[in-house]
Amino acid sequence: MPSLSPTGTSSMEVGIKVIAENTRTQEQRHVNSGFFTMISVDDSGKPQAVPPLEPGTPDEHRRQAAAALRKSMRQEMEQRYAAIC
After folding, report:
1. Residue 85 pLDDT greater than 60, yes or no
2. Nearest Cα to 36, choosing from 80, 69, 9, 70?
3. Domain 3-84: CATH class, spelled out
4. For the chain, which residues make up each domain, given as ranges?
5. Among 1, 25, 46, 64, which residue's beta carbon has the most beta carbons within 10 A?
6. Section 8-37 average pLDDT
7. Residue 2: its pLDDT value, please?
8. Model pLDDT, residue 7
9. HEC string of 11-79?
10. CA distance 71 to 59
């Protein structure tokens, strides 16, 4: 179950939710979640702009805000790590 959240000019964050299903009972359960940041590149391998994803539903607005928060937290962690190395 992928979901898409904008994160930048050339990147998009893809949220993945993994569901396992017991084939005998058809019972489903959530087993893992994660986020992947994908970068759009041109033919020479350089980042290229992607069209912005405009949220239309409350869920899309929530995903966009959460993606922005995760990006901010990643940047802060990178700065903290750079300061101690």
Report:
1. yes
2. 70
3. alpha beta
4. 3-84
5. 64
6. 92
7. 62
8. 66
9. EEEEEEEEEEECCCCCCEEEEEEEEEEEECECCCCCECCCCCCCCCCHHHHHHHHHHHHHHHHHHHHHH
10. 18
Distance, CA of 75 to CA of 26 (rounded, Å)? 41
Cα of first residue to Cα of last residue in the chain, in angstroms, is 38
- Note the pLDDT tens digit of each residue in 41-71: 999 999 999 888 888 899 989 988 988 898 8
Tokens of 54: 């405009």
In this structure, are residues 33 and 14 in contact, taking their beta carbons and an 8 Å threshold? no
Helix (H) or strand (E) holding 82: helix 58-84
Other C-beta atoms closer than 10 Å to the C-beta of 37 total 15
Instruction: Measure the CA–CA gap between 74 and 85, rounded to whole angstroms.
Output: 17
Q: Are 53 and 6 in contact (CB under 8 A)?
A: yes
